[in-house]
Design brief:
Distance between the termini: 39 Å
Number of strands: 14
Shape: globular
Bound molecules: nicotinamide-adenine-dinucleotide, uridine-5'-diphosphate-glucose
Strand content: 15-25%
CATH superfamily of the largest domain: NAD(P)-binding Rossmann-like Domain
Radius of gyration: 19 Å
Structural class: alpha/beta
Strand order of the largest sheet: 3-2-1-4-5-6-11
Number of helices: 10
CATH architecture of the largest domain: 3-Layer(aba) Sandwich
Largest sheet: 7 strands, parallel
Length: 330
């Protein structure tokens, strides 16, 4: 039995592949290498280079391997890009997910884990931390593109034997503590990644997008989660479905928020390097504040995070950034 990981050459996917292999799973990866890297992949995982919506490629993967679960990371991930180019986000995240789900159902794949996002909530209107049954009001096409995929999964699971888990990730950061992989995205836009690049002198400055949000210091607040805690949530969610668990949606975050300025201070402190910060206008599509209530993950699959510490997240992100510079220098 094999687990198919789409987007397995990307940031989170490459960590997932290592976690699966560490747990004795057989892994096949499907990735078109648009933002991922062949070298990021564990050598034991077989890579099919191509698109998640390519029917011939999917057909051959399902013929060559007995796929028992799909973990679907492949997608486009930059919130402001989705505002400027919404149709490409609906294409890559929604339309192509539909094709993959259809192929999974046709091939009789029993389990599906989907990379959803905190962006489905927008800025929660009621209370924070936000639970899965809160109102869903995405503030970007990215959030909508993921919510539509959740809805397709919900309705497909009701009509077919497919069981799914949609994990709503909050802000994923950090790198593999064993330093086998990390976030290598070229021209990355994620706050912790960008701040680490600036701290190590790989970029000249950091822009802080918006200082007039209704938060304690006026900058946006996010719930930053270490990538290894996220991959452990996937393993546990998969185990639960294998044991007969029904389809669910679960938040993955720690339940506490840090502002952009908190993150900047942390990166300066942990790296020991001061750097320049520009306070600029808001970036389109950003929610003011979003913090996870992760009770469902704890209750349904006994998720116990191990890296709930912003300093530790930043330390591992910096460690990877340092390795990456040495690699790029070669
Ligand atoms: N990074 C975060 O904080 C975060 C938070 C919430 C949800 N997510 C979701 O997690 C998933 C992974 O994100 P990431 O940060 O690792 O991004 P990433 O860009 O590093 O990884 C995405 C991978 O998917 C591949 N890919 C993209 N479109 C494809 C397609 N049509 N066919 C085949 N391969 C394709 C890319 O080459 C890349 O390897 C995404 O679905 C994203 O929306 C990420
Ligand atoms: O150089 C930067 C980068 C980011 N930010 C701010 O930092 C916050 C976090 O931004 P970013 O790290 O880009 O993450 P999000 O836009 O919150 O989105 C991430 O987190 C979501 C889950 O919350 C995922 O779904 C997305 O794929 C992922 O990109 C936002 O307020 C940004 O405006 C800055 O001020 N300067």
């Amino acid at each position: 039995m094999t687990v198919l990981v789409t987007g397995g050459a990307g940031y989170i996917g490459s960590h997932m592949v290592w976690s699966l292999l560490d747990n004795g799973e057989d892994v096949v990866v499907l990735d078109r290498l648009s933002t991922g890297f062949r070298w990021a992949l564990a050598p034991e995982a077989r890579l099919y280079v191509g698109d998640v919506a390519d029917p011939n490629l999917l057909d051959s993967i399902f013929k060559n391997h007995q796929i028992e679960a799909i973990i679907h990371f492949a997608g486009s991930v930059v919130v402001p890009d989705s505002v400027s180019d919404p149709l490409s986000y609906y294409e890559n995240n929604t339309v192509k997910s539909r094709a993959l789900i259809a192929a999974a159902v046709a091939a009789g794949v029993p389990h599906f884990v989907f990379s959803s996002t905190a962006a489905v909530y927008g800025t929660p209107q009621d209370s924070q931390p936000v639970a899965e049954n809160a109102a869903l009001n995405p503030e970007s096409p990215y959030g909508w593109s993921k919510l539509m995929t959740e809805i397709m999964l919900r309705d497909t699971a009701a009509a077919t034997p497919l069981t799914y888990t949609a994990l709503r990730y909050f802000n994923v950061a950090g790198s593999d503590p064993k330093r086998r992989t990390g976030q290598s995205t070229a021209g990355a836009t994620h706050l912790i990644k960008v701040a680490c690049e600036v701290a190590l002198g790989k970029r000249s400055r950091l822009s802080v997008y918006g200082t007039d949000y209704p938060t304690t210091d006026g900058t946006c607040v996010r719930d930053y989660i270490h990538v290894s805690d996220l991959t452990s949530a996937h393993l546990k969610a998969l185990k639960r479905m294998r044991a007969g668990g029904r389809s669910i949606v679960a938040n993955c975050g720690y339940g506490r928020g840090f502002s952009v300025l908190d993150v900047v201070d942390c990166v300066k402190r942990v790296s020991g390097n001061d750097f320049e910060v520009s306070l600029v206008d808001r970036r389109p599509g950003d929610a003011a504040s979003v913090i996870a209530n992760a009770e469902v993950a704890r209750r349904e699959f006994d998720w116990v995070p191990e890296y709930d510490d912003l300093d530790l997240i930043v330390q591992t992100a910096l460690a990877w950034e340092d390795l990456l510079s040495k690699r790029n220098d070669k």
